[in-house]
């Protein structure tokens, strides 16, 4: 039984990876991902300059998921560019590099450096960070999203995908899909956390930034994540791969993402809770489900969700 998958022209022996932001900020965390049973991994979304992020507590595990307002803490673009180029030198071209510039100009600066470097992997451009005070999520502003993509693809020639926020309205799905279909985007990762949720314990919020408002992840978001994966699988050009993210706790959750059309599945909250050992559990559970259904590869069921 194989759970290998392909994104762009890259083959991965396993369809599982971390969600950007989770256990991927430092060298130590990135090494743990590299040595895990994930199929690949992605770096923490970075900005041009290093950032401390928001004050703590800024991430809390909840029974049914998690809430965070990290505020984009990261070691800065140069650190992650060095990291991915060093990986290439060790013979690994199959990894993801997440960028999340605070302005369009900063995204262009980072992508220009990537374009002019020896980078051979896949860039995931984060259009959906919900936790920077005063900065709206690009993915909810369709004109702005189009402006960003137009500018990026005026010079950028390497494989690139976008990380999208969750959408909830059919008109919005159609609008964003129409924009994405116009550009040579290789993959779409959906969903980022559901922004600006509020969790209360006793009489108080549980995270410090933004009066307690933060991005929601985990089991709470799975139906929304599956809806986004499914809708984009239907609406996007067939040569755009979908990377599913949201609510993956079990092999069954991975199976459902793939059934909706995902080619790769990211793990966020449950990776925070269980650390990298989650990948071996998810892989063996997924293979067990496939075995029980006589499936030998992901293509046997990818996108084949049954409708009534
Ligand atoms: O760092 C964060 O606060 C963060 C980011 Br950049 C993101 O894309 N999604 C999220 O839930 N948190």
Terminus-to-terminus distance: 29 Å
Give the class from helix and strand content and strand pairing: alpha/beta
Query: What summary fits the major beta sheet?
Result: 7 strands, parallel
Class, according to the CATH hierarchy?
Answer: Alpha Beta
Q: Which regions are unreliable across 5 or more consecutive residues at pLDDT < 50?
A: none
Mean pLDDT: 98
CATH topology: TIM Barrel
CATH superfamily: Aldolase class I
Outline, from the CA principal axes? Answer: globular
Number of domains: 1
Strand order, main sheet: write it out.
Answer: 3-15-14-9-8-7-6
How would you summarize this macromolecular structure in one to three sentences?
Keywords: Cytoplasm, Flavoprotein, FMN, Oxidoreductase, Pyrimidine biosynthesis. By secondary structure, this protein is an alpha/beta fold.
List keywords for this structure.
308 residues, alpha/beta, TIM Barrel, 7-stranded parallel sheet, 9 helices, 15 strands, globular, binds ligand RRO
Task: Report what the structure shows.
This protein has 308 residues and is an alpha/beta fold. It has one domain (5-53, 72-193, 219-300): Aldolase class I (TIM Barrel). It has nine helices and 15 strands. It has helices at 27-34, 77-89, 104-115, 142-152, 170-181, 222-235, 251-260, 269-274, 278-292; strands spanning 5-7, 10-12, 16-18, 59-62, 65-68, 96-99, 122-126, 160-164, 187-190, 194-198, 200-201, 204-205, 213-217, 241-245, 264-267. The strands form four sheets. Strands 3-15-14-9-8-7-6 form a seven-stranded parallel β-sheet. The chain has a four-stranded antiparallel β-sheet with strand order 4-5-13-10. It has a two-stranded antiparallel ribbon with strand order 1-2. A hairpin with a 2-residue loop joins strand 1 and strand 2 (10-12). The longest helix is centred in the C-terminal third of the chain and has 15 residues, at 278-292. The radius of gyration is 18 Å and the shape is globular. The two termini are 29 Å apart. 49% of the residues are buried. Bound molecules: ligand RRO. Residues 21, 45, 68-72, 100, 126, 128-131, 192-193, 215 line the site of ligand RRO.
